[in-house]
Specification:
5-stranded mixed sheet, D-amino Acid Aminotransferase, Chain A, domain 1, OB fold (Dihydrolipoamide Acetyltransferase, E2P), alpha+beta
Length: 298
């Protein structure tokens, strides 16, 4: 058998879906597979946090495939919260390990593997990710709507007969598929733009709405980060990310740039962002900041 790689999802093509499928919420944490007594990220690097890795190194958990989450799985800041704890060596974060497959039974069907998981006794902070049987497109759309309303980023689909594939699934195989309206990517930070206060005189337009001129002369810097200037590490396209930040994160980025000594672009952080893929020509549409991305998880 070839060397282990975690199975990865590909975007679903509704026209090629073969029902029934199993559906579960798409989690936005850190992928974690337990291989030969070691807790590994999706890139097969050791989970840095010593507390988490020591717990997951128990031989009882060998073969588990799942997602590490810090806090609520539906928190808007779940990715940032998880990365900041899981990718730090020190600390004893309260984590949840959502288990969804067994990679060491690769030649069996997903349905069989999940039945084996259902028969296990899990620690209190382990959760067997619930799978919902979906019989048709109408049920899938309703399930997706429910997941998004709860705060999840989308849906993961699995074929009941799917083996555990080492590597990325394909649309035609249908082993592991994702349904999400936004796509994720990573970008290298190049610089920033300061957030501006628009001090231009307010005027009323033809619709009776207040508007202000965008003239630079009337704008004043607010002393915080307004947008990150980035370059996608895959497409190499440069653009700005100005949404998705909390006030605290904007302040942290401002402090980072103010305290930073001159260096090369290679030294700059990588961030994760999401964007709307429909209609993309050059720069991503509606990019939204999700958090700093650890090189160990790419």
């Amino acid at each position: 058998m070839s060397a282990f790689k975690p199975t990865l999802a590909v975007a679903a093509d509704f026209a090629k879906l073969v029902y029934p499928v199993y559906a579960s919420p798409k989690l936005d944490g850190i992928r974690c597979s337990v291989v030969d007594g070691k807790a590994l990220t999706r890139s097969l690097k050791a989970i840095p946090n010593l507390h988490i890795s020591s717990i997951l190194s128990d031989p009882l958990f060998n073969g588990f495939d799942g997602e590490l989450i810090i806090g609520s799985a539906t928190d808007k800041a779940v990715y940032t919260n998880t990365v900041s704890s899981v990718m730090r060596v020190s600390g004893q974060p309260a984590f949840t390990y959502y288990v969804f497959d067994l990679h060491d039974m690769a030649d069996t069907t997903f349905e069989f593997r999940f039945e084996q998981l259902k028969g296990l006794d899990f620690p209190s902070n382990f959760v067997l990710l619930r799978q919902t049987a979906i019989e048709n497109e109408a049920e899938l759309l309703a399930y997706e709507k429910q997941c998004v309303e709860l705060g999840y980023e989308g849906v993961i689909l699995r074929s009941p007969d799917a083996p555990y594939k080492y590597g990325r699934s394909t649309v035609n195989e249908g082993y592991l598929l994702k349904v999400k309206r936004f796509e994720d990517s990573e970008a290298r930070v190049l610089g920033f733009e300061e957030e501006q206060f628009n001090g231009n005189e307010a005027q009323t337009n033809e619709l009776g709405r207040t508007k202000r001129s965008s003239a630079k002369a009337g704008k004043v810097g607010k002393g915080t980060m307004g947008a990150l200037i980035v370059r996608d590490i895959h497409s190499k396209v440069e653009f700005n990310i100005g949404t998705g930040f909390t006030a605290e994160q904007r302040s942290e980025w401002w402090d980072f740039f103010q305290s930073r000594d001159a260096g090369t672009v290679v030294d700059m952080p990588i961030v994760k962002y999401k964007f709307f893929p429909v209609g993309v020509k050059d720069a991503p549409r509606h990019p939204v900041y999700l958090g700093a991305r650890s090189a160990l998880d790419i």
